[in-house]
Amino acid sequence: MKSLILALSGGAMALAPIAAAAQETNADEAVMPEAAVDAVVTTPVSSTKKVVLPANTEILLSMNEELNTKKNKEGDTFYMSVVHDVILDNHIVIPKGSRATGEITWKTGKGAFGKSGKMEIELHYLELNGQRVPLVGTFRQEGEGNTVATVAGVVAVGVFAVFITGKTGVIPRGRELMVHTKDDLPVAFAAAAAPPAPRVIAKPVAETEAAAEPAADEAEAAVAADATL
After folding, report:
1. In degrees to the nearest 10, what's the CA dihedral of 102, 106, 109, 111?
2. Any residues with CB less than 8 A from the CB of 165 and at least 6 apart, and which?
């Protein structure tokens, strides 16, 4: 009888590692339950809005240098700067300080019998992000009086009139002139973020010890069967 008990005890001890291994194997082979939603993350979608700055938009420019009929000649180029930001839909399309380029297209010096100097200037374009934006702005400066005749229908009055000094026509540095854009100018800027697209992050359900129970039951059944033998 004692020998039978010792045999059964030895068999149980021998089967214990097997049961443990079976338990570990079954736990590894257990099918993972369907993942449960742990969090939802939203990712903004970037977009741009395209609009058009219409032709004939007014732009106020300021002279970067002085021009006069005594020292300048036909064909000379000169530069002006944008005085105020040009804004469209609450966005700056043409920033203050952007440079514009013009040319003296015609000039006469003062002559006999009190003839004063005259010249015509034309604004060609302004530079914006590496591209040239064509402008419309042509002015004739007369050597007499405090106003300026305009060419091509561009109006310059009041503080925008070209100033003269004596009988030599002078356009001083800082003089402001109003010009216009020649063509429609397509522009694009960042629009309001589109409704975010949800992205689901799943987290697996925690493993339980329930999957190990069948393996333990099988080990106990094997010990009992051996005991009956």
Report:
1. -150
2. 68, 172
Q: Could you write out the DSSP letters of every residue in 135-163?
A: EE-EEEE-SSSS--EEETT----GGGSPP
Contacts of 109 (CB under 8 A, 6+ apart): 69, 70, 117
The one-digit pLDDT tens for each residue of the chain (229 residues) are 545 444 445 554 555 554 555 555 554 444 445 444 444 445 555 578 889 999 999 999 999 999 999 899 999 999 999 999 999 989 999 999 999 999 999 998 765 445 678 899 999 999 999 999 999 999 988 864 444 444 544 444 334 445 544 478 889 999 999 999 999 999 988 766 556 656 555 555 555 455 555 655 665 666 555 555 5
Q: Nearest-CA neighbor of 74 among 115, 111, 114, 117? A: 117
Helices 2-29 and 213-228, interaxial angle, to 10°? 160
Query: Is the whole model's pTM more than 0.85, yes or no?
Result: no
Alpha carbon 181 to chain centroid, angstroms: 24
- How far apart CA 217 and CA 72 sit, in angstroms, is 108
**Amino acid at the residue 140:** R
